Amino acid sequence: MTTSADGDVPARLYLAIGRLSRSLRRSGSTGMGHGSISALSTLSGAGTLRLGDLAAKEGVAAPTMSRIVAGLVDSGYVNREPDPADRRAWLVTATEEGERVVSSVRSTRMQELSRRLDGLPPADRELLIKSIPVLEALLVGTPDAQ
């Protein structure tokens, strides 16, 4: 059931979810790139991680994550220190300021999403609420389902 009278369902769903996600990311903009916010958010939730583990969680190459983390360290959002178990590796942790930024961005984005949901007709809002478990089921077994 990939197509219907309404068009290509997977393509429409992909576009709608992607556009909504990008739109919400813009509403919580801090001037930092998406990669930086995403890495900082991951650190905020996971605590201390090795740089390579953070890169793996974010789905980027270690050199890319190293550049992202360097910028976050320069901004005061992340601490980086050598891993005592392996001096060649680095451990990274969000600072209090980094945690504050993540909290602020999430709050702003949730407020914007709430505003948009409140603008929907009640029947559409109810339909969307009922579809949440279906959308969550699409995540089962995917690497990003955290």
UniProtKB/TrEMBL annotation:
Q: What Pfam families does UniProt report for this protein, alphabetically? A: MarR
The residues the entry assigns to the signal sequence are: none
Annotated HTH marR-type domain ranges read 10-137
Q: Is Chloroplast one of the keywords?
A: no
Q: Which GO terms describe its molecular function?
A: DNA binding; DNA-binding transcription factor activity
Q: What is this protein called?
A: Transcriptional regulator, MarR family
Q: Which UniProt keywords apply?
A: DNA-binding, Transcription, Transcription regulation
